[in-house]
Design brief:
alpha/beta, Rossmann fold, 7-stranded mixed sheet, globular, binds thiamine diphosphate, binds iron/sulfur cluster
Length: about 575
């Protein structure tokens, strides 16, 4: 296969490989460190007719990809690890429906929680779903194995999970890339028993999934996913999963060590490889980024010899956080000084803060003013730039748990007698998973006040387009049942925070559900788009066009400026 070489991020390698494997569509909801996967499909797939869509949340993204696969096309769906919780419902059932066109889920975990609320490990999700899971160890294997994952998905008629971690997603390396292929067009699936999961169909489908497990193991055994070097000092053998292989190789080379090394790049793992290294070595060090997924399994094998397996659970490696060569070195009993000496940082560390001029600041200013009257009241927060409202100087947010949790938590707290219970949520978080909370609020006539702090973008993840803003949100909220008398839409540029505070006090006094949509654009994303537009206007032919999301929903402003556009 002819090759050319490119320097690629792990996320870019996935996108390019998926395009080269002939996907017709890619779906995602942004979330670090996976955001750049869809952005790169938009960039690389622009001229190839690949549809690249930001979905309203990860569950919808997964379902769209599954539908594409059903219809016979290859599809990529990408998300961060917590997104897979949101998509867990279709994900688990898709193991039973199986796939028609190749379907690959690229999920980016975040060990060390660089930008996440937890450290869960998607290998466990794939194991739970009984799906094949591939875990590349560098950018080259990311590219090669993503391509292979589509073939495996079609060969075995099952979605394939591709797990990467932050360090791989966000670092660059030289990658040999192959020629794109155009896979043969498949007919839409015609087998209703496969796809209609009523119990009478689901039971035999589930049996088939269980029976398929040895086939999955065989297929993964044939692939290039595991590498076993038997030479070296057998006092300790090392099993390294995914990117941890790099940390081990770096440590062995830095300290001139040699130990048997089994590198694992896919799950399930052939028993014979594990048995061989366990039989060959006195002790086994298991190095994996994320949770002690394999180590736990090996410990059960090795119950008779409790000291055989070393790793996160034995305390030889740190139980939590990102893996590193230094941690591996300490586990192997070597601890020379770090290769990179400490250098004085040119700038002092600073806590994160909202940008000057950020519209969320107006909302927090009003909230701080109002909450001074209610020392026992609480503001339930959500995830986005506005989460910074929990930190000084605002300190006016009491919770931030998962996307969309603010409204549900405020309802529960109000049910427990807490007053006022206020929820603050971003525009994208609201359309991602706040709307169902709003339905509960209306249905139970919950005595809470909700504020959408609407900045017209998904700012936290880099300013992707949102699903609805301004009037569009007001229509959704009204359509879901909020009484218009207690629904306020404030264009913040026309209001002072004191005006918002007055209205908030009035609605807190009202016993029942009330709602605010407070809108002003994110100053960063707005300025970026303005620059891109003026650059494009100056040189319409040559300008690098801003990447267009095929599903950018027209805003109320667009509707006014573009007659006839849907609102
Ligand atoms: C389930 C899940 N998916 C994705 C993310 C990544 N993420 C964090 S906040 C956010 C959306 C923020 O947008 P918005 O609510 O509009 O607030 P803004 O950042 O614009 O203030 C996203 C996508 C996440 N934390 N959890
Ligand atoms: S990026 Fe936008 S939303 Fe986020 S803090 Fe800055 S101005 Fe506010």
């Amino acid at each position: 296969m002819p090759m050319n070489r490119q320097i690629l991020l792990g996320d870019e390698a996935i996108a390019l490989a998926a395009i080269h494997a002939g996907i017709g569509a890619a779906y995602s909801y942004p979330g670090t460190p996976a955001t750049e996967i869809l952005e790169s499909v938009q960039k690389f797939g622009k001229d190839r007719g690949v549809k690249a869509v930001w979905s309203s949340n990860e569950k919808v993204a997964y379902e769209e990809a599954l539908g594409h696969s059903y219809a016979g096309g290859r599809a990529l769906v990408s998300m961060k690890h917590v997104g897979l919780n949101v998509a867990a419902d279709p994900y688990m059932s898709s193991a039973i429906t199986g796939a028609n066109g190749g379907l690959v889920l690229a999920v980016a975990d975040d060990p060390g929680m660089h930008s996440s609320q937890n450290e869960q490990d998607s290998r466990i999700m794939a194991d739970f779903a009984l799906m094949p899971c591939i875990e590349p160890w560098d950018q080259q294997t990311t590219y090669d194995w993503t391509r292979l994952a589509f073939d495996i998905s079609e060969d075995l008629s099952i979605p394939v999970t591709l797990r990467i971690v932050t360090r791989l997603a966000h670092s660059r390396a030289d990658v040999a890339v192959g020629e794109p292929i155009t896979p043969a067009k498949r007919e839409p699936s015609g087998d209703w028993r496969q796809w209609v999961l009523i119990p009478a169909n689901a039971r035999p489908n589930y049996d088939r999934l269980v029976e398929k497990q040895p086939e999955i193991l065989d297929r993964l055994r044939q692939g290039p996913f595991h590498e076993y070097r038997t030479e070296g000092d057998t006092s300790v053998g090392i099993i390294a999963c995914g990117i941890a292989r790099n940390y081990v190789l770096e440590t062995l080379s830095r300290y001139n060590l040699s130990h048997p090394l089994l590198s694992i790049g896919a799950y399930q793992i052939p028993d014979e490889m594990l048995e061989d290294i366990i039989g060959r070595c006195d002790k086994i060090l298991v190095v994996e980024d994320g949770m002690p997924f394999l180590e736990r399994r090996l410990r059960t094998f090795a119950l008779m010899n409790k000291n055989l397996i070393l790793g996160r659970m034995s305390g030889d490696l740190p139980r939590t956080g990102e893996m590193s060569p230094d941690a591996v070195a300490r586990a192997l009993g070597v601890s020379a000084p770090a290769a990179v000496p400490d250098v004085a940082l040119p700038v002092a560390g600073r806590p994160p803060r909202l940008c000057d001029g950020c519209s969320h600041i107006d909302v927090f200013t009003a909230l701080i003013d109002v909450m001074e009257d209610f020392p026992t009241g609480r503001v339930f927060g959500d995830i986005g730039c506005y989460t910074l409202g929990s930190l000084p100087p605002y300190k006016c947010m009491s919770s931030c748990v998962d996307m969309g949790a603010s409204i549900g938590m405020a309802i529960g707290a109000a049910d427990a007698g807490l007053h006022p219970a206020i929820a603050i949520i971003g525009d994208s978080t609201f359309t991602h998973s706040g709307m169902t909370g709003l339905l509960d609020m209306v249905h139970t006539k919950a005595n809470i006040t909700v504020i959408i702090s609407d900045n017209s973008y998904i700012a936290m993840t880099g300013g992707q387009p949102d699903m609805a803003t301004g009037e569009g949100l007001v229509q959704i909220v009204e359509g879901l049942g909020i009484n218009p008398e207690h629904l306020h839409f404030l264009e913040l540029k026309n209001y002072k925070p004191q005006d918002l505070a007055v209205l908030l006090r009035e609605e807190i006094a009202y016993e029942g559900p009330s709602f605010f949509v407070c809108r002003r654009e994110c100053i960063q994303a707005f300025t970026r788009d303005k620059k891109l537009k003026s650059r494009a206007a100056k040189a319409p032919r040559d300008a690098e066009q801003p990447v267009q999301d095929v599903r950018t929903v027209p805003t109320a402003k667009d509707a006014q400026t573009k007659p006839g556009a849907p609102a």
